[in-house]
Amino acid sequence: MLSRLLRLDIPLAVLVSGVFLVSVSAPAPALAQEAAKGQAGKDPVARGEYIFNAAGCLGCHTVPKTGERLAGGRALKTPFGTFYSPNITPDRETGIGGWSDDDFIRALREGKAPDGSSYFPVFPYTSFTHLTDGDIRDLKAYIDAQPAVSQANKPHDVSPPFGWRFLLPVWQTMFLDKGGLPDEPGKDEQWKRGRYLVQAAGHCGECHSPRNFLGAVDHDRMLAGSPSGPEGKAVPNITPDPAKGIGKWSQGEIAFMLEIGMQPDGDFVGGGMNEVVENSTAKLTADDRTAIAAYLKSVPAIGP
Predict the structure, then answer these.
(1) What's the N-to-C CA distance of the chain in angstroms?
(2) Would you call 25 helix, strand, or coil by DSSP?
(3) Burial environment of residue 285 by CB neighbours within 10 A (0 to 12, 13 to 18, 19 or more)
(4) pLDDT tier, 40 (very low <50, low <70, confident <90, very high otherwise)
(5) pLDDT greater at residue 270 or residue 119
(6) Band of the pLDDT at 253, cuts 50, 70, 90?
(7) For 95-104, 191-200, 257-266, 290-299, which range has the lowest pLDDT when averaged over its residues?
(8) Integer Cα distance of 21 and 86 in angstroms
(9) Interatomic CA distance for residues 120 and 140, integer angstroms
(10) How many angstroms separate the CA atoms of 62 and 85, rounded?
């Protein structure tokens, strides 16, 4: 979840229109379901915990300090209004305890609720759609094993027309590219693993890329930063551009920052990124942090 490299104040995922969660399906690289290999074995709950950490679910779905774990209610202020994350505990009335595996997969892959309504793309299903079915099922197994909390979801505070849910299927037709990441035969497994963590599980581009006037990620400037990220704050460029991005960082320096939060100049990340390191990237394996770093060093450098 290198999604918020440097100093963001909120480790939430996007700025569009409103709900947070996680989704998956379709083909994926050979290492896509190897995240917890050697640690989780055949236990889906343990594997799911690893995906949960990689995706940063805790930060989005828990109000810091005062909130019940995964009970939702965390605010994300965007140019379109303020969105509040939902309760994803196994509570059957106010959470997702009544969801089937297929409901969960559909939410993450297609941005659809069990009743068929569409989720606002502030829930980064445009990235989670690239997760594998296996990782999604494991994620649900972990969430199902957590304590249920009865807490109703807080309504979003979004101005029309951006709060009109009935328009979302049109948005999804235009901007949701469902399914797994395309195969890259010429790339090695480390690169594929890094791409999977950056583009799917970590959904880094959701924060670190500019958006069009409808809130869709500008894929031509993927990872090139955004002047108006979460809470209206600028989000840094994490492409290898030496002037505007992290081109002067070595692969090892990127991986080390993800482990302990220290930048090459010796300063430590603060705000939301500190939370991301503590709750997410520090809990990844060293191999996965290295894979993320290797992938980021390989993407096109994008300047101003």
Answers:
(1) 24
(2) coil
(3) middle
(4) low
(5) 119
(6) very high
(7) 257-266
(8) 8
(9) 20
(10) 8
Q: Which two tokens stand for residue 98?
A: 């009544």
177-187, pLDDT tens digit by residue? 999 999 999 99
| Sequence letter at residue 134 | G
* Sheet of 81-84, strand order: 75-78, 81-84, 157-158
Question: How far is Cα 283 from Cα 69, in angstroms, rounded to an integer?
Answer: 18
244 three-class SS: coil
How many Å apart are CA 276 and CA 20, to the nearest integer? Answer: 16
In tens, the pLDDT along 74-86 reads 999 888 899 999 9
Do the beta carbons of residue 150 and residue 91 sit within 8 Å? Answer: yes
- Cis before 161 (ω within 30): yes
pLDDT in tens, 260-276: 999 899 988 776 778 88
| Buried/exposed code over 164-179 (b: 16+ C-beta within 10 A; e: otherwise) | ebeebeebbeebbeee
- Neighbour count for residue 265 (Cβ, 10 Å): 6
**β-bridge mates for residue 158, sequence order:** 81
Q: What's at 4, amino acid-wise?
A: R
Give SS3 for 235: strand
